[in-house]
Amino acid sequence: MAYTLSSATEGQTRSVGPQHCVTRVELSVTAASLLDRDVASKSDPFCVLFHEVDGNWVELGRTETAVNNLNPVFGVKFQVDYHFEEIQKLRFAIFDEDKCATQLYEHDFLGEFICTLGVIVSNKKLDRPLILANGKPAGKGSITITAQELSDNRIITLTLSGRKLDKKDFFGKSDPYLEFHKQGEDSKWMLVHRTEVIKNTLDPAWKPFTVPLISLCNGDVDRNIKVLCYDYDNDGGHDFIGEFQTTVSKMSEAQNSVEVEFDCINPKKQKKKKNYKNSGFIIVKSCKVGIDFTASNGNPREPSSLHYINPLGSNEYLAAILAVGQIIQDYDTWVSHEFAINFNPTNPFCSGVEGIAQAYSACLPHIRFYGPTNFAPIINHVACFAAQALQQEKAAQYFTLLIITDGVISDMDETRHAIVQASKLPMSIIIIGVGNADFAAMEFLDGDASVLRSNSGEEAVRDIVQFVPFRDFRNAPKETLAKSVLAELPQQVTQYFKQRNLPPNNTAPE
Questions:
Q1: What angle, 0 to 180 degrees and rounded to 10, lies between the N-to-C axes of helices 478-485 and 316-328?
Q2: Mean of per-residue pLDDT scores for the chain
Q3: Which of 93, 89, 114 is nearest to 438 (CA)?
Q4: Which of 164, 348, 353, 467 has a CA-to-CA distance to 256 between 20 and 30 Å?
Q5: Please, is 427 exposed, middle or buried when counting C-beta atoms within 10 Å of its C-beta (0-12, 13-18, 19+)?
Q6: DSSP 3-state assignment of 30?
Q7: Structure confidence by residue, pLDDT tens digits, 379-413
Q8: Per-residue confidence (pLDDT) for residue 157, from 0 to 100
């Protein structure tokens, strides 16, 4: 997890207010190469999002149905609260809609993908294959999930209409709808919002809609937005009418009965016809930017937080620090942290384990917690120190990294690689799990069941990780936890120096 200082107004004392432990995240879903379950046409897919609650999958929401489409780009977004302290398992299941079905299981299953929300937030954009119920691949089907942190609580409400749009239907007029797209980090246009379809008209008036400003333009009111207009067809082959680009700043000129009008341009027609002017007009009748006050906040001062310090002045993090640290500190005079919890990044060192505990307790009222939870950076950071000790001629320096975690990890592949590389260095890693979460990932890193491998297949040259869940020692003397956690450390130290043929630093003369 990362720690950042909460801001204070210049000239004011930094207050101890609510802590932002929860982040609202918007998830966008697209799919590609889906299985075709329909005989006379293509599948009509929709996506259902579930989250795990007490071992059961509970539905959070559904997208719209993409008619006759094996490569859907869903307009409906999922908004979920990202709790950095929790393992939030999500299941994205895609079905082919059967209009006669009344229960979800009656729709044809096209595949699913299961992961944690932390993994999605960490990657920002995740592209993974779909899996069938039997564990086999769903053909070439894949799903892409994009995460957008809704850190900006501004919202935009738009009211639009069209005028003199091109006629696309042979027996009628057009059934127009609009799509709003923003440009991603890869320069590709990404769907943000799709309006409803207005039937049989060339002068549609769409219902007002509201979207987060950060979703529409990343919070930048001068960032380009592309608006596309289509004629809806029941067979899924929607006809392109035209497009234009604009910004929130430009649309915001639509105020107090003043409308903003845009030419709807079809580039192909524009190239072919010399006298081409446009394919109609899109009018912004109203554009309002406001603040959304509904975002939920967590608070480590409440007992529900693992960082809550009880009336006795302790929590599981502090208990673990003290139990293990009081033994480890006898072998060194300082302990280093990747994050300067003493608020002094130029000198981020604490004096002994008591110094660490004091710094941890003191920093809680003044920090904000953010995900994702990445282990690889701190492992690589300590590995840099250990790498400098490779030139030692005697067994003088060995480094121990203590990680206290709630079990959430967002960079498993990077962490596996970091541990495999660190196994070549004079260092060990102790992991203590606090809380009641699923620690399967930590047990996997421990490597007791099998040799840990990186995602490229490289094996760790030795076992350097020891994991222990704190809950197994809640009612035991703190010495019991320390004994269990440190049980493998002496063997790891001697094994390393023996492999290097390095004698102890204090070898007695013969």
A1: 60
A2: 81
A3: 89
A4: 164
A5: buried
A6: strand
A7: 888 888 888 888 877 777 888 888 877 767 778 88
A8: 92
